[in-house]
Design a protein that fits this description.
Blueprint (H helix, E strand, L loop, with lengths): L1 H28 L5 H10 L14 H4 L2 H5 L3 H5 L7 H5 L6 E5 L5 H10 L4 E6 L2 H14 L4 E5 L12 E7 L8 H11 E14 L5 H4 L2 H5 L6 E2 H11 L2 E8 L3 H8 L19 E9 L2
Parallel strand pairs: 1-2, 1-4, 2-3, 4-5, 5-6
Antiparallel strand pairs: 5-8, 7-8
Bound molecules: S-adenosylmethionine (SAM).
Length: about 290
């Protein structure tokens, strides 16, 4: 009975996350929105990452200009991450890369350029509207070494021991079963393979009102794990050489994040202290 209750709650969260990113894909991706609706979604920060400049996507904040200029604006505009896992991964030609929660595909396309024609990149996402955008972007770019698969990161549609590097940008925090995601990463990596992940983590307790908010979960806040628990979960899954480096946001970014939570402005929360409580992190680990 208790398990059933937990499962229902998980399903409710997953549905909210999927709906949130389906809406983001349609509005930012531009298949249906007019200019004003695109800007309003960007400025309300419908993904994990938002930017200091409200009309910008998170790509402008987290990536270097040279990498960004190699992709069309349509692609870099649908960027909802909180870091640059491709740079963190130090990819080499010929590698097979898997991107968990690939969204519009920005990291897949950047990774595709690094691994070249002898390598390949697989993006997995559970939101069909995101996959539509990613596949349209793939055709636009002609990224033949990149493919997108529909699936959940808790049950990856990827063979055992087949991937050199798993990357992910602001997605694991959205999962209701993070230990299962880590076990799946371990399963698909080749021995000696690595994960290089950018994600939101916390240090200390988040206010209860935030933890209970579905919008905070879908905006990558309520589901974020404590940094120490995250490291422990990675080690328990069976990885070695785990490293987590915090990347603190500036206050404007924190404000952008906060606006994603319904009714946040009226909450009794010390907004300044949130900067050191919730932040992005670079996380790496190796499969023995
Ligand atoms: C914050 S966005 C990040 C997208 C992309 N990584 C980026 O940097 O632009 C989160 C993405 O993860 C996907 N996602 C969330 N939870 C997932 C899950 N459990 N399994 C697969 N995809 C998931 C969403 O559909 C969405 O596209």
């Amino acid at each position: 009975m208790a398990n059933q209750t937990i499962k229902k709650e998980d399903l409710k969260i997953r549905k909210a996350v999927r709906e949130h990113y389906a809406e983001a894909a349609v509005k930012i991706g531009g298949c249906c929105g007019d200019e004003s609706s695109k800007n309003s979604v960007k400025s309300s920060g419908c993904g994990c990452g938002t930017s200091a400049n409200k009309s910008d996507a998170s790509s402008r904040v987290f990536y270097n200009t040279e990498d960004l200029s190699s992709l069309p604006e349509d692609v870099t505009g649908l960027s909802l991450g909180c870091g640059d896992p491709v740079t963190l991964a130090s990819l080499k030609e010929g590698q097979t890369v898997l991107d968990l929660g690939s969204g519009g595909g920005i990291d897949c396309f950047l990774a595709g350029k690094k691994v070249g024609t002898t390598g390949r990149v697989i993006g997995v996402d559970m939101t069909p509207e995101m996959l539509d955008q990613a596949r349209a972007n793939r055709s636009k770019i002609g990224a033949e070494n990149v493919e997108f698969r529909l699936g959940e990161i808790e049950h990856l549609p990827v063979a055992d021991d087949s991937v050199d590097v798993v990357i992910s940008n602001c997605v694991i925090n959205l999962s209701t079963d993070k230990p299962q995601v880590l076990r799946e990463i371990l399963r698909v990596l080749k021995p000696g393979g690595r994960m290089a992940v950018s994600d939101i983590v916390t240090s200390g307790e988040l206010p209860e009102v935030i933890k209970q908010s579905l919008s905070a979960w879908a905006g990558c806040i309520a589901g974020a794990m404590d940094e120490k628990d995250f490291i422990q979960a990675i080690q328990q899954a069976g990885f070695k050489d785990t490293k987590l480096t915090p990347v603190y946001f500036d206050e404007e970014l924190i404000s952008d994040f906060s606006r994603q939570i319904d009714g946040f402005e009226t909450l009794d929360v010390d907004k300044k202290s949130l900067r050191k409580t919730i932040f992005s992190a670079k996380i790496t680990a190796e499969k023995p």
